[in-house]
Design goal:
mainly beta, four-stranded antiparallel beta sheet, 14 strands, 0% helix
Length: 214
């Protein structure tokens, strides 16, 4: 038998850290650091991110903070809440591809979707590879992304804006070798023995044993 155990490294990341969910944690080898991006918190400031009255729409309950750590114990705030590098988001995808961090998508807490693709080589300076509205897939929340066979992959997700009766769960699939030019590998279609059903809010596609897993 093989046994694995988890060790709690710290109970609080930093004095100004605010609890959150839907953030991503990614190790970028070129920086030798973990990078934590975004997240959601339903509290009012200072415990949360919102500085507008409760019940306002769109809410200000997501963040675009960027934190980093070399050991998972000591953390520093690299980019503050509300910085101009990219839009606030949570449940986005953060991937390592071509020695850079890539962020794809998010949700609809801003009153619209995070419909973009971002890239950073150091976690600090961010480039909009595809500006909001530019990706060829339909706007959506909670899409699924991964790296496989020398390319970025994304697809799936669900609709969360508009009439609930019009919501759709997606299972289309897109592929790109540069993050800018995307090819549709499969369109939305009914689930079958060879097609996973439409879904969102899944962590990521995983490359393992020369295959891609969901």
């Amino acid at each position: 038998a093989v046994r694995y155990e988890w060790q709690r490294l710290t109970t609080r990341l930093a004095p100004d850290w605010r609890v959150r969910d839907g953030n991503t944690l990614t190790w970028l080898p070129s920086t030798n650091r973990f990078w934590m991006i975004g997240g959601w918190n339903g509290y009012q400031a200072p415990d949360g991110f919102s500085t507008i009255p409760e019940g306002s729409y769109p809410p200000e309950n997501t963040t675009n903070e960027v934190w980093s750590s070399a050991d998972g114990i000591s953390w520093r705030l690299e980019l503050p809440h509300g910085h101009l590098g990219f839009e606030r988001r949570h449940v986005h995808s953060t991937l390592v591809f071509e020695e850079a961090l890539w962020v794809i998508g998010g949700d609809s807490h801003q009153g619209h979707y995070n419909h973009d693709v971002l890239r950073s080589e150091d976690g600090l300076a961010w480039t909009e590879v595809l500006a909001p509205g530019a990706p060829p897939w339909s706007p959506r929340a909670l899409q699924i992304s991964g790296v496989y066979a020398g390319a970025l992959w994304t697809g799936g997700g669900q609709d969360l804006v508009g009439p609930e009766e019009d919501y759709r769960y997606h299972n289309d699939l897109w592929r790109s070798e540069d993050g800018s030019h995307w090819t549709q590998v499969a369109p939305d279609a009914p689930a079958s023995e060879s097609r996973w059903g439409g879904c969102g809010m899944v962590s990521s596609f995983v490359a393992w044993r020369s295959r891609m897993w969901l």
